[in-house]
Structures are given as structure tokens and as C-alpha cells.
Design brief:
Rossmann fold, four-stranded mixed β-sheet, 8 helices, 40% helix, Sulfotransferase, P-loop_NTPase, Sulfotransferase family 2 domain-containing protein
Length: 176
């Protein structure tokens, strides 16, 4: 998740454009050099926590159930509200990286924070600092608009679970 790019680091949490970022940086998805902790000039990419949770649900619960989710007590094709409730009860210290908070992955203050929602524009910053290729779309999950998955009550549960992410990266959307 902390990708070594020359003397710097690019961090992308799972379900936050990490496949597209690896392809643009290295031309492959796997066998890329990672760091335990960021070094040098540090760029991190995040995704709206509630959109990221929908993507995780669609990818790992609905489209292709993965044993990693079963280990977490989640079940194949479980209804989204049950998924949100279950994930909300799992602390980051035990959470699978696909729904662990981005704040648990991005500890500290990156030099630049890019967002999936403005990836094309924010990627230019990476290209400038790391001479990276243009970014494409790889391994994207198809689903309805993420906001349509949430009732006001369910949104409140998810916002509480990802409160630190919301405060650090999406404060303007915290109280909607």
C-alpha cells in the first residue's frame, strides 16, 4: 500500500484506486516494491469512505465472495445494511484492509493527498514528482451510485465507523 517510487512513496488504500495506481507506476499489479512506512516525498490517495465501503461490498460480497470476508464474519451476498453494521463492529486492528479505515493505513501527514474523485487532476501531481505514466482504470467495480445504498440511518452508522477518515479527508461531507 506504500509503494516505493524512487526516493519517494505513493500510498493507496485498497478500493481507493490502488490497482490503477500500481499499473500507472509500475505497469503491473503485483510484485511491486512496497515500504513498511513512507519515505521521501509522500503522496497518498484516498476515496470517500462511504463510496469505498460500497465498492468493497460490491466487489468482495456480491461479485466474488472471498474467504477473507468470511474470516471477518461476513457472508456471501449479505444485505448491504447488515454488511455496514458488521463492518462497523470490527475495529481497525482486526479489519481486513479492504474496509479498514484509510486513516489506519495513512498514518501521519502526506506531502500531498489526492482523491479518487479527482484522480485525473490529482494524478498530474504524481506525474510531475515521479515521472509516472498517465493513469487509466483497472479493476474498477461496477455498481449503482454509492449514495443510493444508504438510508440516512445507515449513513450515520457508516460515518461514525469512518469518522476519522471523514474528518481528515472529507470534512465538507461529514455533516450532510
Amino acid at each position: 500500500m506504500h509503494f516505493a517510487v524512487g526516493e519517494g512513496t505513493v500510498t493507496a488504500a485498497p478500493k481507493a484506486g490502488s490497482s490503477s495506481i500500481r499499473m500507472a507506476l509500475f505497469g503491473r499489479l503485483y510484485d511491486v516494491r512496497e515500504r513498511e512506512e513512507p519515505e521521501g516525498y509522500w503522496v497518498a490517495f484516498v476515496r470517500h469512505p462511504l463510496a469505498r465501503l460500497v465498492s468493497c461490498y460490491q466487489h468482495w460480497i456480491v461479485d466474488r465472495f472471498h474467504h477473507r470476508m468470511a474470516i471477518q464474519g461476513l457472508t456471501e451476498r449479505m444485505p448491504f445494511p447488515y454488511f455496514v453494521e458488521a463492518v462497523s463492529a470490527i475495529p481497525d486492528s482486526r479489519a481486513d484492509m479492504h474496509f479498514q479505515s484509510q486513516s489506519a493505513i495513512i498514518r501521519g501527514e502526506p506531502d500531498f493527498i489526492g482523491r479518487v474523485e479527482s484522480l485525473a487532476e490529482d494524478w498530474r501531481h504524481v506525474q510531475k514528482h515521479f515521472n509516472a505514466r498517465p493513469i487509466g482504470r483497472h479493476n474498477s467495480t461496477q455498481h449503482a451510485d454509492w449514495q443510493s445504498f444508504y438510508t440516512p440511518e445507515l449513513r450515520a452508522v457508516a460515518v461514525e465507523r469512518y469518522r476519522e477518515d471523514m474528518e481528515r479527508f472529507y470534512e465538507s461531507d461529514l455533516h450532510r
